[in-house]
Amino acid sequence: MGEPVYFKIANELRKGIFEGKFNPGDLMPSENELASSFNSSRVTTRKSLGILENEGLIAAWHGKGYFVQTPEHNKYTMYFEEHNPAFKSKIQKVTVVKPTDEVKNALSLKEGQKVVLIRRIVLNDDIPVACDEKYIPYNRGDPLVETEIQYADFPEIVAAKSSPFAIQTDMEIGFEVASANLSVALSCRQEEPLLVTYRYIINHYGIKVGFEKMYMRKAYGRLRAHSGYSFVGKRK
Amino acid sequence: MGEPVYFKIANELRKGIFEGKFNPGDLMPSENELASSFNSSRVTTRKSLGILENEGLIAAWHGKGYFVQTPEHNKYTMYFEEHNPAFKSKIQKVTVVKPTDEVKNALSLKEGQKVVLIRRIVLNDDIPVACDEKYIPYNRGDPLVETEIQYADFPEIVAAKSSPFAIQTDMEIGFEVASANLSVALSCRQEEPLLVTYRYIINHYGIKVGFEKMYMRKAYGRLRAHSGYSFVGKRK
DNA sequence: CGTTATTTGTGCGTATGTATA
DNA sequence: CTATACATACGCACAAATAAC
């Protein structure tokens, strides 16, 4: 039936924090105090406190107690969908090329090392709204990956051999103006400003195994991120 | 002395996942199996599994077991520092103005409602690299907030009365070209492209209590985000 | 400076409930 | 119906950090 006890206690305490009964910097009542006031065991109360600790609302100090934290209003979560379901996309070309300085730098390439370039165009009603350039170091005999890249995400592809967990991605967000080359691909005027994401795929040895630039026109829309707590009755 | 038992077990299992011994979709050994193979109790083993569950590596299914998850390569964490320590900033003006349509929309304002506009300039060696416009609904008699805004973060200020936890911020990232007005403030040429973040501060009733636009020139640098796991020997 | 009370951290045992196959 | 697996909850003991005396 109903909610478990540790859940009720956690909700109660969380409510207290949200309503200002407990404020950042405050010391929460001790485990034993809470246990007796909620008529439960210390173990159960600990579990409730563990939940709040996990949510970042409180932090435990050995020998002192649980302190209410100051929320991190500058921490944002962003979902970056490579394959935006609102749009169609198609691979424009897959080629082996000599890398530009930017790409050479991004992938820490040795002199003479070539890269596979995969260019994808994102379309809204046949009008290009974004363009995607992926770079992977190329060695003679490597298979090209045009089919997978259409459906799977870039990080998973470049690290297909290793565990999907052992990959990290660093992203940068900036803007550029369309080059001659790009203005053709996006059928836009040259010098049109574009929102650009730069993604560096890093394997578990710390080696950069992939680099991607995505150019987005205004019609593609803005990127979205979110900051804040949302633990209202969260239960599976 | 050393690490606690539950920590060792968690590290062992995490290593197994990273090395591909357990792969996404796989069922982990049961709690009892792990407990006996690690010569510990079921409770301790549960704690280890709870850690990995928290990290998103595995998920528990009641009656079935723990399944190894597929990592979310599209989830990014971004720290957006309002007051970048690399730069100086100064408040340029604080005024009560009639809102533009964009601001009226962002704050869901009624007709005739005025707003406080706070404009801040971010400087690198006295050269403007970014500009910040904050909007707060204004009611007659409200105190202006120019002093606080210099040091504290926007979300905390607009919701100073309520609990700092009860605030959420939605962010959008896009670009614009400098208007006549902005080109003066940033001493840049008109039509210069600018990276723009739009932030909507929302209180716990779901009401938008603040809106901010930040315009960044190329010299300000790119925004940064990160995706992936990093649990190597994490312990306080 | 040690002693002591308080508080959290670690770990085990046990019992019972409930979902799954 | 039964065996297995996770979920909840209590009790206990001892370790370790902290603060006040």
Quick structural gist:
Two copies of one chain form a homodimer. The first copy, chain A, is α+β, with helices and mostly antiparallel strands.
Count of separate structural domains of chain A: 2
CATH class of the largest domain in chain A: Alpha Beta
Main sheet: strands, sense, barrel of chain A: 6 strands, antiparallel
Question: Any idea what the shape of chain A is?
Answer: elongated
Helix/strand class of chain A = alpha+beta
The CATH architecture of the largest domain in chain A: 3-Layer(aba) Sandwich
Instruction: Walk across the major sheet of chain A and give the strand order.
Output: 4-5-6-9-8-7
Overall radius of gyration of chain A: 25 Å
CATH-assigned fold name of the largest domain in chain A: Chorismate lyase
What is the CATH superfamily classification of the largest domain in chain A? Chorismate lyase-like
Can you count the helices of chain A? 7
DSSP helix fraction of chain A: 10-25%
Task: Enumerate the spans of chain A where pLDDT stays under 50 for 5 or more consecutive residues.
Answer: 232-236
The largest interface is: A-B, 55 and 55 residues
Q: What series of H and E elements makes up the topology of chain A?
A: HHHEEEEHEEHHEHEEE
Number of strands of chain A: 10
Terminal Cα span of chain A? 14 Å
Q: Calculate the mean pLDDT score of chain A and round it.
A: 92
